[in-house]
Design a protein that fits this description.
The complex is a heterodimer. Chain A is an alpha/beta fold. In chain A, 37% of the residues lie in helices and 19% in strands. Chain A has a single domain, classed as Thiamin diphosphate (ThDP)-binding fold, Pyr/PP domains (Rossmann fold). Chain A has 10 helices and 10 strands. The radius of gyration of chain A is 18 Å and the shape is globular. The relative contact order of chain A is 0.14. In chain B, the strands form 3 sheets. Chain B has a 7-stranded mixed β-sheet with strand order 3-2-4-5-7-6-13, sandwiched between helices. Chain B contains 14 helices and 15 strands. Chain B folds into 2 domains: 193 residues, Rossmann fold, CATH 3.40.50; 120 residues, Rossmann fold, CATH 3.40.50. By secondary structure, chain B is an alpha/beta fold. Classes of the chains: A alpha/beta, B alpha/beta.
């Protein structure tokens, strides 16, 4: 069987820009795929020397262990402010943040809104799994109505806890934001589409177009207390219903 | 060209930042330091030197912008006043933890809470005892004149890059708002991107070339690695104490009594020294220019010579604790200070010295 492992037979290989460090993510989690397609885009565009990533606080705080690029780890929610300064002082570079829902849509709401409103020339990759994964499954701003978490143990009650925040639609309305799309990575088909969106986002940076914002709706099988397959099915049925996939703003125009 | 000008402390600091070749300033308005960003916005430093000036959405965003620029080897700074500095402390702790060079300016006003917009020195503890979370210290420079507001910008960046550590310029509303003549230095060129990549390529996140990737972080999940990081920081602070302590001694040679004061209090106390000497009381002044490192040994040495020490501060008594620690109870140490934005007069200080130190000293002798 080992005979077939030859370079001439190779049809796929891991991007060079992912390190060999074992991922710290739970088996079944979408982060690994989201990392991978982001690194593939950077490799395919040949821009690694000019790319600076900003890691958040949350499950993907250790993104710099897995992405073989220069990265700065930001305080919780502050990645868009950190990225703002890097993009302003190095205008020829590609600067992106990689953030979760707690980081981007709760504690970092001000930084997100204002970096978007200023039209900073950055890419924001927003992985939304509707829960605080790293800290053990607490309610996030994007937790769905009725969804159970360790801080909404009887389900999210809209009256006392507010509605799940559609921050992506919110930032799409800001003039500084050029491109907004929502994707997923749970199937090959979805991952390919998400990758295309990320590629478009980085190309917008090249053209100095302002903020490109790509949301990836993902699962958190551990936090949702499901097995990976169940979690993806639940995501398709419930998360996609509230956070529909597709382009939201293209070339500065709302869809 | 160097230039003699009449300027406010805040404006002198802003002009000095442009001339020092600073790459970026990120700020948020707050009294009594808003002149810094107002001056910078008016001067268009992006045209003069290419320096970036940005008004952030909050003090929190501003300090994290400093963090971002600093992580790429750029010379970045921010300024604020007390309540704003409280907001920046998270970011300052991250700067210290991630070992990033940056300059933060605090033009102190009275507190706690929203407090007053009048001058104060009540942020001493916050400045020298860490302030934010975790085991870290800031190198703290305390200007006492408009000239030092200007000069300390470059000094602060030199220290920040020498140690890869955040440096605080601890001013106050008095120094920030008053006008004095100031000699401004020649314009220095900003470093080019190529020079930054060459000089700081071993740590700065400027884009991965054929070298290993650079990572800026303050996260160490393994206890041994976290402890090693803390030890490394402590070594840095020890080196600061050994190599970069700054202080000024005025009339200390023959002094029987000592006043310790920094910043605006030191200026006022200098007049007290004159008044006392006119009355035949030999008073000296020790002015710490750096509050960390603190002139501990100098105080200990002086405690063998003087009969008592008065710590004069525009607060309810903060630096006095460090003075007491330094002199190890060898001589009486008392505090005098006004709060609420009230500035003590030289006469008031002399009165306090006579009441709290000299009178007690005589009483003690009488008892014996």
């Amino acid at each position: 069987m080992l005979d077939i492992i030859k370079s001439e037979n190779q049809v796929f290989c891991k991007t060079k820009l992912m390190t060999d460090t074992p991922l710290s993510y739970c088996p079944g989690c979408g982060h690994g795929t989201a990392h991978n397609i982001t690194m593939e885009v950077i490799e395919e565009m040949g821009i690694v020397e000019d790319t600076i990533g900003v890691a958040p606080v949350g499950c993907s705080v250790l993104a710099y262990d897995f992405m073989d690029i220069d990265m700065t780890q930001a305080a919780h929610g502050r990645a868009p402010a950190v990225a703002t300064a890097i993009a302003r002082t190095w205008p020829e570079k590609y600067v992106f943040t990689y953030q979760g829902d707690g980081d981007l849509a709760a504690i970092g709401t001000a930084e997100t809104i204002h970096a978007c409103n200023r039209g900073e020339n950055i890419v924001i990759i927003f992985v939304n799994n509707g829960i605080y994964g790293m800290t053990g499954g607490q309610m996030a701003p994007t937790t769905l109505e009725g969804m159970h978490s360790s801080t909404s143990p009887y389900g999210r009650d809209i009256e006392t806890m507010g509605s799940p925040l559609k921050i992506t639609e919110l930032v799409a309305n800001l003039p500084g934001v050029y491109y907004v799309a929502r994707h997923a990575v749970h199937t090959h088909k979805h991952a390919r589409k998400a990758k295309k969106a990320i590629r478009k986002a980085f190309e917008n940076t090249r053209l100095n177009k302002g903020v490109s914002f790509v949301e990836i709706v993902s699962n958190c099988n551990s936090g949702w207390k499901m097995n990976p397959i169940e979690s993806n099915e639940w995501m398709v049925e419930n998360m996609f219903a509230y956070f529909p996939l597709g382009d939201i703003k293209v070339n500065g125009k709302l869809k | 060209m160097s230039e003699l000008k009449l300027m406010k402390g805040n404006e002198a600091l802003a002009e000095a930042a442009i001339r020092a070749g600073v790459d970026a300033y990120f700020g948020y308005p707050i009294t009594p330091q808003s002149e810094v960003i107002e001056y910078l916005m008016t001067e268009r430093p992006e045209k003069r030197t290419g320096m970036i000036v940005l008004q952030a959405e909050s003090e929190i965003a501003a300090i994290n912008m400093v963090y971002g620029a600093a992580s790429t080897g750029k010379r970045a700074m921010t300024s604020s006043s007390s309540p704003g500095i409280s907001l920046k402390l998270e970011g300052i702790s991250y700067l210290a933890g991630a070992e990033l060079p940056a300059v933060i300016v605090n033009v102190v006003r009275g507190g706690p809470g929203l407090g007053t917009i009048q001058p104060s020195q009540a942020d001493y503890f916050q400045s020298v005892k860490g302030g934010g979370h975790g085991d870290y210290k800031l190198y703290v420079l305390a200007p006492a004149s408009v000239q030092e507001m200007a000069d300390f910008v470059e000094d602060a960046f030199d220290i920040a890059f020498k140690y890869r550590a955040p440096v605080l310029i601890l001013s106050d509303g008095l120094i920030g708002q008053m006008m004095e003549k100031v000699m401004l230095k020649d314009q220095k060129e900003r470093m080019t991107n190529e020079a930054i990549i060459k000089k700081y390529g071993d740590w700065a996140t400027t884009g991965k070339t054929d070298r290993e990737r650079n990572i800026i972080t303050s996260l160490y999940l393994q206890p041994e690695k976290m402890e090693a990081k803390v030890r490394k920081l402590m070594k840095k602070y020890e080196q600061m104490e050994n190599e970069d302590l700054r202080f000024e001694k005025i009339n200390c040679e023959d002094a029987d009594y000592l006043i310790v004061a920094y910043g605006s209090s030191a200026r006022i106390a200098q007049k007290t020294v004159e008044l006392a000497r006119e009355k035949g009381i030999k008073v000296g002044l020790l002015r710490p220019i750096t509050l960390f490192p603190f002139p501990k040994q100098q105080l200990l040495d002086l405690s063998n010579q003087v009969k008592g020490i008065l710590s004069v501060e525009l607060n309810a008594g903060q630096m006095v604790e460090d003075v007491k620690l330094a002199v190890e109870h060898k001589v009486p140490v008392e505090h005098f200070g006004r709060t609420g934005g009230i500035i003590h007069t030289p006469e008031e200080i002399l009165e306090a010295l006579e009441e709290k130190i000299i009178k007690n000293e005589h009483a003690r002798h009488h008892k014996i």
